[in-house]
């Protein structure tokens, strides 16, 4: 674990992302000292959201977790790795990098998730456990996750909220709404106050896309960032 529990936020510019987000017109910041969290409604238009949902439906697979904990029902959604060579995916990806000020090479490929009735992702953090069994697999090259940006693509008829346990804040799905939060504190240590629960969908389906940013450049295939 030595050396894994402190993240260099400056190299990627992630240490300046909170200030950058604060200056975005219409954005709201959560009134809590426990985490840096921002909300921006209508970040994506309905047509873009619909196109992304179609891509997710076309290539969804069962979701997994990095360090299995023995709970087979811990994460029951479906996941899709979106192809960044598809123009609409590339455009959304670039907008997210522009929003954060973090260069393209520090971002994971954009990912989509789909939740059917009864599916959820129990309380978890997005950063990797520095002492976890899979640290070397997921973090040896790109390092830790610094920020998460998540966008709701639709509004299921019931359920599907995202609840942050440390603040009690419940984010209800709204088409095109973006939520951003720091996985790492300004001092470079993981922030356990980002623990959040993707709650069960009660009616319909929920779709989201998620963008994670890393401490060091992500080893994408040649041509991926073109």
From TrEMBL:
Question: What is the phylogenetic placement of the source species in the record?
Answer: Bacteria, Pseudomonadati, Pseudomonadota, Alphaproteobacteria, Sphingomonadales
Q: Which UniProt keywords apply?
A: Dioxygenase, Iron, Metal-binding, Oxidoreductase, Vitamin C
> InterPro entries in the record, alphabetically?
Oxoglu/Fe-dep_dioxygenase_dom, P4HA-like, Pro_4_hyd_alph, Pro_4_hyd_alph_FE2OG_OXY
Q: Which Gene3D superfamilies match?
A: q2cbj1_9rhob like domain (2.60.120.620)
Query: What residue stretches are annotated with the Fe2OG dioxygenase domain?
Result: 106-215
Q: Which cofactor does it need?
A: L-ascorbate
Q: What is this protein called?
A: Fe2OG dioxygenase domain-containing protein
Q: What PROSITE patterns does this protein's entry cite? A: FE2OG_OXY
Report which residue ranges the record marks as coiled coil: none
PANTHER family listed in its UniProt record = PROLYL 4-HYDROXYLASE ALPHA SUBUNIT, TRANSMEMBRANE PROLYL 4-HYDROXYLASE
